[in-house]
Design a protein that fits this description.
By secondary structure, the protein is an alpha+beta fold. It contains nine helices and 19 strands. Strand 8 and strand 9 form a beta hairpin. Helix 7 runs antiparallel to helix 8. The termini are far apart.
Length: about 425
């Protein structure tokens, strides 16, 4: 009976302990805290290793550049050639109704400030708004968003079902990552998304934006999975742009290394090598033939008059002339200090040599003491004298003939000293 009672008590204790451990484990998960990463204004908008790190961009301003005035299409002409023109699509938080050309029918769309660019029955799916023969390509009026700044109010994550089973990207998606008929799943916060390993690799980021001019709230969808983050192509992060202006604009810069062609404007053939001095005339937006939107560049002028346009990211390979001069000053001071220390070392060595010579002369006399001090040997010197002058040999070969001890001191393959009963009788070198 006692054994039964003890067993029941042990079992009950085990269950209580197990239950306590389980409760504590749940509590620790519920109390998990996410700290907001800090944004560094020297960093442009870049793809983040962890999805939670996108939170550092919330509250920052983005600039949506104007169209490149020199852009030329890279595609061959054809019936879809006009689709290679710049398509701008922002989303609104409500639907618009827009009248289809040549018809009394309205097309419903959540494209912000919509206008119809083209209507055709066989539009690619990624361009469709409306159905069947009413399908049209609806875009945002460029004048309503271009050249404006937007504040990031929030960033959410949503799942794109097309990406769950396939890594392929259609032609439309590759060209325009802002989808015309994108079917949104439920969007969740970055904190919730960061708990899911799938969200770290796939899905869509929704950027909730506020137009700083009109106050309108709109949003931008951008694929999140690796190597396809397009926000950096479409926007300029204003704190990053302004910081570069403050640090470099109007100042003389010294290149700390040679820049490669990827750091320079692709339409210019300019070489920037280490140590050359350039003046940063301006940091602004530049049009390019191969890029649909204007891109931020630093306009530099060399002392000789040569001009170059450099990507903002490459400005980290320059230092201002003030910093360069300060570095040179410190470098010179260090060189002067090294020279001073070297002179002092030589003086100490000379003083030590003179003192040692005095000691040798006092011990062995003027002639022998002077030879030893100068690292010289002479016939008639003793073993101790030779040791103090040349140091110990590598090897000593000893022979005794008729009571006379003969020694060969080997210093290297060509230098030998010969002793008879401790007195130097021969020198070979």
């Amino acid at each position: 009976m006692k054994k039964t009672v003890l067993f029941l008590m042990f079992s009950l204790s085990y269950l209580l302990v197990k239950a306590q451990f389980t409760i504590r484990e749940i509590d620790s998960q519920e109390e998990q805290v996410y700290s907001r990463p800090v944004y560094d204004s020297l960093e442009n908008f870049v793809e983040q290793e962890k999805i939670i790190n996108y939170k550092k961009y919330i509250g920052l301003q983005l600039y949506f550049p104007e169209r490149s005035r020199t852009y030329t299409t890279q595609r061959s002409a054809g019936k879809d050639a006009e689709l290679d023109t710049l398509i701008t699509i922002f989303r609104a938080l409500h639907d618009y109704k827009i009248k289809r050309p040549g018809s009394k029918k309205n097309i419903e769309t959540n494209v912000y400030q919509p206008e119809i660019l083209r209507c055709a029955y066989k539009l690619p799916d990624c361009y469709r708004a409306g159905r069947g023969e009413d399908a049209c390509l609806v875009v945002t009026k460029p004048s309503s968003v271009e050249g404006k700044s937007f504040t990031i109010l929030d960033i959410l994550w949503g799942e794109n079902e097309e990406n769950r089973y396939s890594f392929s990207i259609s032609r439309c998606d590759a060209m325009y990552p802002i989808f015309q008929n994108f079917k949104e799943a439920g969007f969740i916060s970055l904190e919730e998304a960061s708990k899911n390993s799938y969200a770290e690799r796939f899905g869509v980021l929704k950027f909730i934006l506020k137009d700083d001019t009109t106050g309108d709230t709109l949003y931008y969808n951008d694929r999140h999975y690796r190597n396809f983050l397009g926000l950096w192509e479409d926007f300029v992060l204003l704190p990053y742009f302004i910081k570069k202006q403050q640090l470099y604009q109007g100042k003389y810069l010294v290149a700390t290394k040679a820049l490669n062609s990827n750091d320079l404007h692709p339409e210019e053939k300019v070489r920037i090598i280490s140590g050359t001095i350039w003046k940063c005339d301006e940091i602004g937006m530049v049009s390019m033939k191969h890029w649909k939107r204007q891109q931020p560049y630093a306009m530099l002028t060399k002392v000789s008059g040569e001009k170059a346009k450099v990507k903002l990211s490459a400005l980290s390979d320059f230092i201002t002339e003030e910093v360069y001069n300060e570095q040179q000053r410190i470098k010179q001071l260090n060189a002067d200090e090294r020279d001073r220390q070297e002179r002092e070392r030589k003086i100490r060595e000379e003083e030590a040599r003179i003192q040692l010579k005095r000691e040798y002369i006092a011990k062995y006399g003027e002639k022998i003491g002077g030879l030893i001090a100068n690292k010289q040997v002479a016939l008639g010197m003793t073993r101790d004298m030779c040791t103090e002058s040349w140091g110990y040999p590598l090897r000593i070969n000893t022979t005794i003939v008729q009571g006379v001890t003969h020694e060969q001191w080997v210093y290297n393959l060509r230098t030998y000293l010969y002793f008879d009963n401790g007195i130097l009788t021969g020198i070979q070198h």
